[in-house]
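Reply to dn_fold:

You asked what the input looked like. This is it:
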Amino acid sequence: MEVRVEKTAKALSGIDPTKIKLLTPYPAKPLARPPAGWQFDTTRNVAPFIQEVEIAPGAKIPLSIKPHLLVPEADGIQVFSIAEPGYQSSLGYEQTTTIGAILSTSILQLDESAKQLGASIDQLQQLLISLPKSEPQAQPQPSSSRKK
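and this is what came back:
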């Protein structure tokens, strides 16, 4: 990850971004290992994202953050990289037609349906509890007359 202070057209409450230095006791590194078959790549042209950070009450500076990119470990000989069906590179992380996106959406819909079903079952139970209790019906007694 690479972080830099950016100059923007927006006023920065009297703070000159060129006078700010970002100091860290150690270089940035990923918090976890990449999954098997994947690696972090910092050499590709990944567009940085801008994050405003408040350094004092009312004083904000924009930081440009270039993230690590998770890419498959493909050597082109034994391991090949193929785009997921439905993947559109122009959408970046906003994919909607890939298998992963469709499964993710389906899981979210199933979770929501399960919550709604649980609420409906609770309402039915409350309705059943609130119904008046029925009186037990007297069962007819067998006649005691005997044939002679």
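Residues 83-129 form one domain.
Hope that clears it up.
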